Amino acid sequence: MSVRLSPLKLSPLSSSRSRSSAPKPFQPLNPRPFLQARVGTEVLIRLKWAQTEYKGTLESIDSYMNVLLRDTQEFIDGKPTGSLGLVLIRCNNILYMGSADAIEMTDMELK
């Protein structure tokens, strides 16, 4: 038994679709300059483990993206556990980092 394939007919792009609406290719962004610009501001860092968060002033960040915070407060499950002062957080422990200005830390039981 033989199968005969017909040639594939391609239609040109319709005139209603402009080339500018084509999706742009993904451009990776280097986060280091963005984070360097945030030195001196208050940030909130969430660790990958045990719902732990640290809120403090970003003191510095190195080439491996290890983070140094000063005036740091620790929160576990949204509850404050105390003030830690100067804290170094290794880069591979960080789940996310954000600006602490937009986040209000409250006790989870009070909500």
From TrEMBL:
Pfam family of the protein (one): LSM
All residue ranges annotated as the Sm domain in the record: 30-103
Gene Ontology CC annotation, any one: pICln-Sm protein complex
One record GO biological process: mRNA splicing, via spliceosome
Chief subcellular location: nucleus
Annotated region described as Disordered, given as residue ranges: 1-30
Coiled-coil parts of chain: none
Low complexity composition bias: residue spans: 1-24
Matches recorded under CDD domains: Sm_F
Subcellular localization, as worded in the UniProt entry: Nucleus
Keywords from the UniProt entry: mRNA processing, mRNA splicing, Nucleus, Ribonucleoprotein, RNA-binding, Spliceosome
SMART domains given in the database record: Sm
Gene Ontology molecular functions: RNA binding
InterPro entries: Lsm6/sSmF, LSM_dom_sf, Sm, Sm_dom_euk/arc, Sm_F
Similarity remark: Belongs to the snRNP Sm proteins family. SmF/LSm6 subfamily.
Subunit text: Component of the heptameric LSM1-LSM7 complex, which consists of LSM1, LSM2, LSM3, LSM4, LSM5, LSM6 and LSM7. Component of the heptameric LSM2-LSM8 complex, which consists of LSM2, LSM3, LSM4, LSM5, LSM6, LSM7 and LSM8. The LSm subunits form a seven-membered ring structure with a doughnut shape.
Protein name as annotated: Sm protein F
Organism: Penicillium solitum
